[in-house]
Amino acid sequence: MTLLTGCWRGEATLPSVTELRTQFEAARSEQWRFSAGDSFEWDSRLLTRLLPIARYCETEQIELDLSALPPAVARLLGLALAVAPAASAAPPRRTLVDRYRAFWRNLFSGTHASVAFVGECTLAFGRFLRGGANTRGIDILWFIQQCGPQALPIVALISVLVGMILAYLGSVQLRQFGAEVYVADLVTIGMVREMAALMTAVIMAGRTGAAYAAQLGAMQANEEIDAITTLGISPIEYLVLPRMLALILVMPLLYLFSVALGLGGGALVAAGLDVNLLQFINSAREAVDLTDIGTGLFKSLAFAVVIAAAGCHAGLLSGRSSSAVGQATTRAVVHAIVYLVVVDAGLNILYNELGI
Amino acid sequence: MAAPHIEVRGVTMAYGRNVVQRDLGFTVGRGDIFVIMGGSGCGKSTLLKHMIGLNRPAAGHILIDGIDLHSATPQELLTLQRSWGITYQRGGLFSDLTLAENVAVPLEQYTDLDDAEIRDIAAYKLALVGLAGFEAYYPSNISGGMQKRAALARAIALDPTLLFFDEPSAGLDPLSSLRLDQLIREISESLGATVVIVTHELASIFSIATNSVFLDAATKTQLDVGPPRQLARSSRHAVVREFLARGELSAGAPVSERSHPS
What we know:
heterodimer, A: mainly alpha, 2 domains, two-stranded parallel sheet, elongated, B: alpha/beta, six-stranded mixed sheet, 9 helices, 10 strands
């Protein structure tokens, strides 16, 4: 018999389960009996000791007598013992080989899913053009509002600053040859052919791509996407297409907006280098032609597709917990930026080969 | 009657200008199992959110242990928060932590126990709600009913003296629901905890509640306060008797002639 006295609660130091067990085993009694002694106080801490002992008694078929303890102790213990511990205690640990296999499997299924997603989007776009898609026009307008006008302030700020950066960067080099006047050419070509499209795309990847992934991920978590699918509506047509089309329509406009403001920023810096506004405008007009603007516009279109696809795909593949939605958003932005740069490099090589 | 643990005095709840319930006033005694009941959408959960300080009443006061929730100092509020446990309608488990880690969060926050002790307590609390052996699972690996029980384990981690449950048995099978009722009564009795439950499960209401309040969606105020059995017999309001009568009938009680309120 073990007499429990004093404080078995709060943050008191208690004897371990093994200590208690050895006490009983030393006494060699058939029946393990606990009883309450002087100034006995208890809370859940007592139960953390009794629970393993009770389980041990069950397996060893020892009789455990708690009748001398407050009745609530036995009742709580009864509740804790009512359901046997689950057999597969922990999800199985993965070995290194498992992880290696899983890596390749994931890579394969990931690529497969991406290709399938692009294919589905293309088919859905085809149906949309023929007027047979479940895409609501009002949704497209809503998303245009979200990713167009509301993005203007941040795009404006970044574009002006990038224009100024380009101008400063060029002026340091050009001053060595007394060729400051060419700063306008440099800013114009830089903005039109490269920076305007790329910087807008990076902003939109962080702003809109992440938002798409978070929206669709939360919808996945909330079983909304299941509901859409079982209503017989394609989530690609209903959810992905309006987002993608909105971004495709808006990005070229943002690109032109960004070019204009970038040139403004460049002109501001150039004025400090004694290149006046008229000179700047004249050189800028001669520096680029419509083909150059066309290359930039095409880039911005390609980037729009990449950002929307990365965002929506990550969102649709998201798990159903809040941390999974966070992971989906991260994946959307990282993938978008990586693919942006890859696509950009590819297009530059292509333009170079084509001589435009 | 036991000393008051929670006092709700003339509370009006509103979202903007949209009044949910007005002129609520009742007292929850220490050690009571108090049920907030009423039809869907009458503001039961909203009342609970007011009682735990998440929402601020548009008028009136809510006192816990004599402290007004909405004018309490941060220190007083922290003491209250340390002494209550809450389960939310959808569990509210932290999805990036395992079940054992979820239960451990309040213990790590408010006690100086070492890791092994905390692990033991977490294991015991999970066993108490019938989830022994699931310590290493993540909330996303288990079913919705299990998530609710795990949330309960987290709510009782600190042996709270005050427990709030928002629809604890919704989504549980009858046996789990019964075990949950037993558990709630056991915790209330063994630790002397006061329990406030939002529910419309009549079986639970009759088997565990010692007192209750009935909120009505139509009149936007409380219709009656009292032990459910007494309300079922002799409430002044037909709506309340009607609401509770279905429970008596389906629970196998003698089917007397249903009183038809004129």
